[in-house]
Amino acid sequence: MANLQTVQAIYQAFGQGDIPSILEKLAEDVNWDAHSPIPEVPWMTPRKGRSEVPLFFQSLAEAQFKVFDPHTFFENERQVLALVDLEVIFPTSPKTYHVRNEVHLWTFNASGQVSDFEHIVDTLLHVQAHRGE
Question: CATH topology for 3-131?
């Protein structure tokens, strides 16, 4: 499976709540949000290794995604960059947060597994969402 198809399959699995299908596409030693951590925000906490990634999904379990639309993709040999539009309500606030063109960067190892995933986001927005502001 090509890297772009893998990323699209991951997004499809996320939409269906199929976390095991996502995990099987990750390298055992995957870095998840290791480069731009926001430790105060559970869904932006760095994770190391496939065994820690489920904590990311657990942190989003109560979020209500009204829109989750990965709509534009760019790829090179080892990376896929996705632009994602979101409308989400976090349990900390009744407010709907609208995000346009959030960047997700997926890096693959030589075996075709995700070795690194990074959200490139408006960090203040995520902090405010977590605080319910």
Answer: Nuclear Transport Factor 2; Chain: A, (3.10.450)
